[in-house]
Amino acid sequence: xxxxTLTIGELAARSGVAPSALRYYERLGLIRAARTxxxxxxxxxxxxxxxxxxxxxxxLGISLHEIRAALETLPESRTPTKADWAxxxxxxRHRLDEQIELLxxxxxxxxxxxxxxxxxxxxxxxxxxxxxxxxxxxxxxxxLPRRGPDRGSRDADGRSPAxxxx
Length: 166
Known about the structure:
The chain is mainly α. The protein has 2 domains: 5-91, Multidrug-efflux Transporter Regulator, Chain: A, Domain 2; 94-166, no CATH class. 40% of the residues lie in helices and 5% in strands. A 3-stranded antiparallel β-sheet has the order 1-3-2. The protein is elongated.
């Protein structure tokens, strides 16, 4: 019969997370462990779900601070339900949608650029003659989503019509 608790090594093996990371998660309050008389950590099996949630959220670019805030809304006295996890994941749906849109845009616009040496500056998605896009802010302005109240108009390629293309 399996134990209701896991050692740190067992939790690490089951979750794919290094023991040092698990100790860090515990220190941040993301997971909890009880202590034995010999001061060894024992994790409730439900902590495996929390560690899995942390790993997935991190893969989505969610900070540990945001993850902790989300996990703090879960009940301490019971195992989180499917509804609990669904509520947490809904909080990040918009972010996921934005990431999917960005990845799609990057895939669609950069495929032609990789290895081409920009032989056709007229069609280049990132060409910026005279650094005209500096006024819009830092970073790759044509590829990153526009933010803020002054979003400006964009053509179908996401370019500003006023920007010279050649």
